[in-house]
Design brief:
- The structure holds 2 protein chains of 2 kinds.
- By secondary structure, chain A is mostly helical.
- Chain A is built from 13 helices and no strands.
- Chain A has a domain at about 95-295: MetI-like (MetI-like fold, Orthogonal Bundle).
- Helix content of chain A is about 75%, strand content about 0%.
- In chain A, helix 8 packs antiparallel against helix 11, helix 11 (about 215-240) runs parallel beside helix 12 (about 250-255) and helix 12 (about 250-255) packs antiparallel against helix 13 (about 265-295).
- In chain A, about 45% of the residues are buried.
- The model of chain A is unreliable at about 1-5 (pLDDT under 50).
- In chain B, about 80% of the residues lie in helices and about 0% in strands.
- Chain B has helices spanning about 1-35, 40-45, 50-60, 65-80, 90-125, 130-145, 150-165, 180-205, 210-215, 220-260, 265-275, 280-305.
- By secondary structure, chain B is mainly α.
- Classes of the chains: A mainly alpha, B mainly alpha.
- At the A-B interface, helix 6, helix 7, helix 11, helix 12 and helix 13 of A face helix 1, helix 6, helix 7, helix 10 and helix 11 of B.
Chain lengths: ~300, ~325
């Protein structure tokens, strides 16, 4: 009994130090901290959207304030200006963070689930199962992903759910590849052999003994993938697919504002574009930082 | 012996693309078959005469069982008989061949720009690590990886066409090269950003390897060390990225052609999706996927050239 306890304490200490080591490394990486700051800001803005602005995201101020609210340049009342219909652009950028966050979290959660299941099955069983899953990944990888997603989204009635399902059909593969590689190397380790010798069944070995060791690279891959998903969602709405107006999606706003860039009303298209860049940059910086921090080869 | 092994590898690698191609065709079939709505009705418009629609359904084989339709689709693909556009009756092959030069110019041009700029900036950054210019080039690459293709395009048009008036904005004019300049740069930004980072990091790794130190210690000039010894090995991951970037590039083509109104495959595919022109969609998606498969095959085969350590057994 005592022996077992001792073993547990040692194990706990070890896993704790992995996380605290990672955190120590992360704290030293200024770019990663900037990325983390951007992500936190993005999430807070999305959550507290209604408290951050006195306007409504679809409210057309030309009806109440008249023609001066149409394409008004940035001012104290409208920090980012207004669009053709007199909607406050800052408000729409703030609510756009919501749309972006909703779709990217939903799509990433689903990608991670599919990716972990497929990757674990392929890596653990190898052989025929691996052949089939790897074949599927190679096939799906061959498509230009944007066209693939558009082909799914365009033929069905537009909905948020369809958009994130279509996106996750592409993004699970990167997760699955990472998981597969990790599982393949972990399953050859002694503790897995001993678990099997003790009569632990395949599912328990996979989910209790192998998966916890795969989480770190999955988190890194998922963080980096978030940027890609945000870009994809924005590209979809830019082209007129996915969420439909008047829903304030950043990509759609860039597309709507593009015709007014040349005539001097740059704020309509430029502010949402900057919002996309910043958010994606945040996830990229933080993802890079996480990768370095969780890599045991990187010494403090 | 080496030649035989290499040849065997070549054959084996080519054979591995066959199941992928078969799968690609299958996915395209599924994508365009599960779609709600009757293609015959779409082809004839809302007021299509029911008799004609029935005839068309028969002619297109839409009433056949799914496995028969699938078999016919494979047959059609392998005989390059992909049907005609619902819109203008042009054959799919004609439509693709007609739009290909624009897309090919765009894609190849931007890849060349991305590799040339990306590798040189990457080498510069690695050899000037932690200097101001290194930070600048890392900053450019970070922004390049985070910015949407179309947003970069819009800003470039705004700056160089609208404000400075140096370059015509959109469209293709009479096909002069100047019209391709902005689209090529736009499409090249993302792969360039990736290549800068990758070249920098692999170069930094390679620079500290023994054989580079040896090259230096035998009195070679720094330039010779970098370009003759270090670069060749640093480029191997870059070559891999070029293959994988083909898919991103083909996705970017869709956006780039849309903002610059270029008559290429990307715009063709978007218009086909909007018009539900299924034969064109099938054709373009298949074609793009095949380009990706072939590009990656070529990349794999070229490893031997860059890295003599790679064995083919």
């Amino acid at each position: 009994m005592e022996k077992e306890n001792k073993y547990n304490t040692v194990k706990n200490e070890k896993s704790k130090s992995l996380i605290s080591d990672a955190w120590k490394k992360l704290k030293k990486n200024r770019l990663a901290l900037v990325g983390m700051g951007i992500i936190i800001l993005f999430i807070l803005v999305a959550i507290f959207a209604p408290f951050l602005t006195p306007y409504n995201s679809t409210e057309q101020l030309i009806w109440t304030e008249g023609a001066k609210a149409k394409l008004a340049s940035p001012s104290w009342e409208h920090l980012f200006g207004t669009d053709l219909y007199g909607r406050d652009i800052l408000t729409r950028v703030i609510y756009g963070a919501r749309i972006s966050l909703e779709i990217s979290i939903a799509a990433m959660t689903m990608s991670v689930l599919i990716g972990i299941i497929m990757g674990t099955l392929a890596g653990y069983y190898g052989g025929f199962v691996d052949d089939v899953i790897s074949w599927l990944i190679n096939v799906l990888y061959s498509f230009p992903f944007l066209l693939f997603i558009i082909a799914i989204v365009a033929f069905f009635p537009p909905s948020l759910i369809l958009t994130f399902i279509a996106i996750s059909l592409v993004y699970w593969m990167a997760i699955a590849r990472v998981v597969r590689g990790q599982v393949m190397s972990i399953k050859e380790q002694e503790y897995v052999f001993s678990a099997r010798a003790l009569g632990v069944n395949d599912w328990q070995i996979m989910f209790k003994h192998i998966l916890p060791n795969v989480i770190a690279p999955v988190i890194v891959q998922a963080t980096l993938g978030m940027g890609g998903i945000i870009l994809t969602e924005a590209a979809l709405t830019f082209l007129g697919f996915g969420t439909q107006p008047p829903t304030p999606s950043w990509g759609y706003m860039v597309s709507a504002g593009q015709g007014y860039l040349a005539s001097g009303q740059w704020w309509w298209g430029v502010f949402p574009g900057i919002a996309i860049i910043l958010t994606v940059l945040g996830f990229n910086l933080f993802g890079d930082g996480l990768r370095d921090a969780l890599d045991p080869k990187n010494k403090l | 012996m080496g030649v035989i092994l290499m040849f065997a590898y070549l054959i084996r690698r080519i054979l591995t693309t066959i199941p992928v191609i078969i799968g690609v065709i299958l996915v395209v079939f599924i994508l365009t078959t599960i779609v709600p709505g009757d293609p015959a009705r779409i082809m004839m418009g809302q007021r299509g005469d029911p008799e004609t629609i029935k005839l068309i359904r028969e002619e297109m084989g839409l009433d056949n069982p799914i496995p028969v339709q699938l078999y016919d689709f494979y047959k059609d693909v392998f005989t390059f008989n992909l049907g005609r556009s619902y819109r203008n009756n042009q054959t799919v092959v004609q439509a693709i061949v007609g739009r290909l030069p624009v897309t090919a110019t765009l894609a190849i041009g931007s890849m060349i720009v991305a590799v040339l700029l990306g590798v040189s900036l990457g080498i510069f950054s690695a050899t000037h690590q932690y200097t101001f210019l290194d930070y600048i080039s890392m900053f450019i690459s970070l922004i390049g990886m985070s910015a949407p293709v179309y947003f970069i395009g819009l800003l470039l048009v705004l700056l160089f066409a609208t404000h400075l008036g140096w370059i015509p904005g959109t469209g293709l004019g009479n096909g002069e090269w100047i019209y391709y300049l902005l689209p090529i740069v736009t499409l090249g930004v993302r792969p360039m950003a990736l290549i800068v980072r990758l070249t920098r990091s692999t170069m930094l790794e390679v620079i500290h390897e023994d054989y580079v130190t040896t090259a230096r210690s035998k009195g070679l000039k720094e330039k010779a060390v970098i370009f003759k010894h270090a670069l060749k090995n640093a480029l191997i991951p870059v070559v891999t990225i070029i293959g994988l970037q083909t898919a991103t590039l083909l996705s970017g083509v869709i956006l780039t052609e849309t903002i610059y109104s270029l008559p290429g495959l990307g715009r063709l595919s978007i218009q086909a999706v909007i018009n539900r022109d299924f034969p064109i969609i099938r054709g373009v998606v298949l074609f793009m996927a095949l380009v990706f498969v072939v590009a990656n095959l070529l990349v794999d085969l070229s490893y031997g050239f860059f890295d003599p350590r790679i064995r083919y057994d």
